[in-house]
Amino acid sequence: MVSSSAARRALVTLTAACALLGTPAVGAPAPAAPGTAPDPEEWLRLALTAPSRTTYQGQKTVIQWSGRTSHAAVVRVYHRPPAQTRIEYLASGARSQRLVIDDGRSRWYYDPARRLAVREISSGTDGLPPTVNLHLLRRNYILQRGGVARVAGREAVQLGLQPRYPGRPLLRLWIDRETGLILRLERFDGRGHLEQLSTFTRVAYTPDLPAHLFAWRPPAGTRTSAAPSAERVPLDRLAARLGFPPLPLTPAQIPAGFVLESTALLKVGRAQVGRLHYTDGLATLTVFQGRVAVVGGGRGRTADAWGEGAPLQEQGGVRALSWQAHGRMFTLVSDLAPSEVLRIARGLGYNSQARSGVNLSRQASYMKQAGSVY
Fold this sequence. Notes:
The chain has 374 residues and is mainly beta. The chain folds into 2 domains: 6-224, Lipoprotein localisation LolA/LolB/LppX (outer membrane lipoprotein receptor (LolB), chain A), CATH 2.50.20; 228-369, MucB/RseB, C-terminal domain (Phosphorylase Kinase, domain 1, 2-Layer Sandwich). It has helices at residues 6-20, 40-49, 134-140, 235-242, 338-347, 364-369, and strands spanning 30-31, 56-66, 69-80, 84-89, 98-102, 106-111, 116-121, 141-151, 154-163, 170-176, 182-188, 194-205, 223-226, 230-232, 259-268, 271-279, 284-290, 301-302, 313-315, 318-325, 328-334. The strands form 2 sheets. A 13-stranded mixed β-sheet has the order 1-8-9-10-11-12-2-3-4-5-6-7-13. A hairpin with a 5-residue loop joins strand 10 (170-176) and strand 11 (182-188).
């Protein structure tokens, strides 16, 4: 973790690391001669489908900002279509090497220093998350085609996703002109502050990659656990499974442009929790409801950086809040602005006395269950 002046120091550190590795620095892509291209929607469609038809390997720099702190990593990526991915987080400073392997069916997260492996259902992508909805994107974001730049030595077309509503994320993509692969991604929060940067510093396209790269079993002595599984259940059938009727958001509570995309049942230990997932095509809002809290404890950074006095927990631009009301436990996870998250939570019975806290060190799998871009 990098504390005050984190962004500047992280970029300096990563620039030096790239120099040692013989790769370009992380800075903005170098301009290249403009060229003709399809319309912005076609470029986005090309980017969404590129991992399903492109074999590649390379090295990325990834930085996530959260208020005045940031997390930075250099990773090696191997991908074989349609959905096999290997991600190696290189050791840096106090951070040990970590490994993510997705064989198209299961995805393993392995931390050798802690001898811990977590297994979940495959996400099937190394590019934009599967939660991106093209129809909703057209309705809630303005697609803007920019110029052509060079990223990792390749020509890339810039594409911007500008939100039509305030307080929503803004996305900038640099898409390989030849393959459609996203070579660089910048995500800004609702204030226009950069909160996520992912960029290839080196990339190579190959006919195929060895199968052993995507086959993995936990080494002897490794502690293993499974992320919670989700079963799609229609809203009108959730009550019978949960033992109480779930509270959906009212039309007045749902943020403009959002729709209820899916409802599901999660197993948390021996208990069951309902999940209602809303999205505008890019931003997400997920409400968990059950007799038990999705997560417990109160660790994590309080998200008051926006000046809203928001008693939220935040990690990597995603805010979470847990409280008890209406005879159940609620957990709300979203990448919307804190003021919007609090407005929605209050409509579901949240108040300062009802707050119970969220342990974000155990939140990663639930962030994925929520459909987060992180």
